[in-house]
Amino acid sequence: MPTNLKPYVYDYTLEDWQAWVKENGESGFRAGQIFDWLYVKRVSSFDAMTNLPKSLRDKLRDQFDFVTLNEVAHYRSKDGTVKFLFELTDKNAIETVIMKHSYGNSICVTTQVGCRIGCTFCASTLGGLKRNLTSGEIIAQVVKAQQLLDETEERVSSIVIMGIGEPFENYDAVMKFLKVMIHPKGLNIGQRHITVSTSGIVPNIYRFADEDTQINLAISIHAPNDELRSKLMPVNRRYPFADLLEACRYYVAKTGRRITFEYALMGNVNDRPEHAEELARVLKTFPMAHVNLIPVNFVSERDYVRTPRNDIFAFQRILEKNKVNATIRREQGSDIAAACGQLRAKHMESGAR
Length: 353
Prior knowledge:
two-stranded antiparallel ribbon
C-alpha cells in the first residue's frame, strides 16, 4: 500500500464526496464544487479551491492528500508520444504515456507497481509485483496528462488501461477509476473511448461482462493453443485457454460487444503461417472478433526477436482470408522506450524501485 496515512482526494467518487460533506455537516452542493475543482479546473492544492469556505478547505487538508506523482523523467518522441516516469510517495516508479493520433490524444495508464503475471516477452513483469495502485493513483495519471495537454488547449480523448500491471488483478480500484473517468461532471470520457486489457483473469471477465458498461475489452492472447500460450504466459496454467475462450463467449453474449484479441508477434515463436491458421480456426466462431497484431518490442532481458515486416503482413492476410478481421498496431514512441515497462526497467537498473 502507499505510505500516505490519509485517503487521496482522487480516491473518492462524486457519491463518496456527497456522503463525506453530509457526514461533515457541510451543504450537499459542496460535493459538486470539490469534484469540479478536481476534474474540471484540475487544481493541485486545497488553497486553490477558492469558492470553498476556509473551514472546509482546512477539513479537506486535515483528512485528505493529493496524489504525489514526482516526475522523474519526461520524454517526447519525434512522433509526438510523451512518456512519463513518475515516482510515488513510497519511492516506487510507474509509467504513463500520451499517444498522439489523428482522432485525438490517448492516455495509457498503469494499474500496478510491477506485475506478477510473468509473460516471458514483457518488461513490465521484471522484478515482479510490488503493490496495487489505489484508484486515486490511477486517476492522477490521467489528470497529470490532461494538465500537460491544457498547455496547448488539447484534451484527453481516450484511455487505454494497458500500462504496467494486470488491471483485473486490481479490479475494484480499476472499476472505481472508470466510474470517475466517465462521470459527466468529471473528465467525461466517453465509455466507448476507454479500453481495458487483461491477460485473461477469467473470473473477472465474467464480472466485467455483468457490469453493464460500454467500455471496450481487450484480451492479450498471444498464442493459438494451450501449450504455446502456457510457455509465453504462465497465467494460462491458472486459467486455461478453453476457460478463457468460454469467458469471452459469455462476455460477447451478455454485452453484444466485440472483443479485441491482442497478439504480440515473436519471430519463429508464434508467427508462422500454421499459427495464423490455427488462430483463425479458434476465433472465427466469435462474432465481430478483431485481432490486433503487435510487433514484439525488444527487451534486453528477453530473447525474442521481432517478426519480419513481410511475415507480419502474411500473418494478417491468413487471418483475413479466414474472415477474421486483423489490424497491425502502429508503433509509437520507439525512440523513447515507450513500450510498457521499458523505462521503469531502466530506472530499476539504477537501484530505484
